[in-house]
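user: Please review this fold.
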Amino acid sequence: MQRGAMKDQKKIIRGKSIFEFVLGRNGYYVDKTLLAKEFLSNNDTVLVVPRPRRFGKTFNLSMLEYFFDINKKENAHLFDDLKITKDKAFCKAHQSKYAVINITFKNSKGIDWESCFQFMKTEITELYRNHDYLLESPNLKEYEKNDIKKIILGEGSRNDYIYSLFKLSQYLYAHFEAKVIILIDEYDTPIIEGFSKGFYDEAIEFMRPLLGKALKDNLHLEKGLITGIMRIAKESLFSGLNNAGVYTLTSLAFSDKFGFTEEEMKEILAYFQLEDYFDDVKKWYDGYRFGDTTQIYNPWSIVNFVSRYEEGFKAWWVNTGSDTLIRKRITEPDVENTYNTLQNLILGQTIERNLYENFSFPNFDIQKELLWTLLTFAGYLTVAEPKGDDKYDLRIPNYEIRRVFKDIVVVWLEVEYRVVRFHLERTVQHLLNNRLKSFEEGLRQIMGDTISYWDTAAEPERVYQAYVLGVLAIIGNDYLVRSNRESGKGRYDVMIMPFDKSRVGILMEIKQVARNKNEKQASFNERINKTLREARAQMELKKYYQELVSHQITTIVKVPLVFAEKVPYVFPIDD
């Protein structure tokens, strides 16, 4: 029971995306029932609505099933007092008036096509078993019932499964004498899995006719709704399915139907007497934009937080569907520009990029810019502002996703440069607690066996700065790390600002010294010391600390950091 809960108070039910299960057990429901009217009133016969995973797609489709399904009339009472029932004319005309097919492919994964196909067959078999009453239908012919039995027994051929959704719509239309609504959830899971595991062509060659037969020129079809993460390019999947209207996260339609709006989130917190947590909930889980609806909250994270608020704030959401692809691309050895862009995003900056809404996976390995489209549609980035001509300012939406990105950077350091996480954490804690000699020693240990001097020769100071920012990615959410921002009379390299004003604020000025050919060690040491003095003087002269002062940080530590080849120095030699 939640804080302050009464005996009959509604409860959070996690782990079930079935409308009847949640509402039938007094579960708390964020009312999205007006989706039914927006969906049915839309001019397109077939709609493709991509959204990130864990943003309510499966539950919304379950709600539509229970609202429209002629075979679930006994559940009509579940909609009593919900928003859709205020439109009595719409409910009278459409509630419980259609046969409904609802299938999800979110679990259709595997190490190869055969194993993935078995999962898909299992989903289709389970769908047919849910409609096994058709075997007693007087409106079906015997050979049609035999075809149903083959699927129920798992004995169908490949073509039987390709035609399965189309034929089921035919059988349901004959049995109920009512048009059919087809709901397909996470259609792109086997396709993304196929691209990751090497069976993309097989997945496309199955999904293309499966969707085409069911949704193109189907006389029994009233309406179709397809959800997933991406809009797979028409030429590879939706060729021939020319009646599909696509409503991505940049579209105006359905903009408030997936994810929780701020008003809905406030109602949840008020209901469970958690209003005091509003500011932190907003920082952690807010920040998405769908169409013209801003301040969209991650519903999966909100549900988990409300259920387990005593545990504090955590990164509950991980988009496992595309996570492998994203991590693989970000941790590739030749992604210096990607890594630097990622650092800018972590520091709270926006980036301007094209979003390619017709996503073609075969181009993903060639067209590197597709990474930012995948990151956005998968929920790791969000639109800050449309710029026109398919260009958008993109940003990380909130603390939760920033932590996910930080973890990716740490993994990148671990994998690419063999940096041990423990050493990262210990070294950064030395810095945050003003143990600068220990910080210097720890940074030397980290870099000693990792970064190559020759890898930094082109723009050494910029590369060293990016590397230091990567090391600082281990810092938790008690600090704000910024880079290359104006403060005082110039731009500092790195600033660490604590949210707790009693803690130490840190400025870092990073410089690099290259050893001249045949230069003696004593001369090189003197140039290192001179550069350290210049770095410290530059921070004072240009008053880089002004931003920290304006935020009422009273204890400010100025850290000159000089890389002599790849050895970091904070203190002068022999000091």
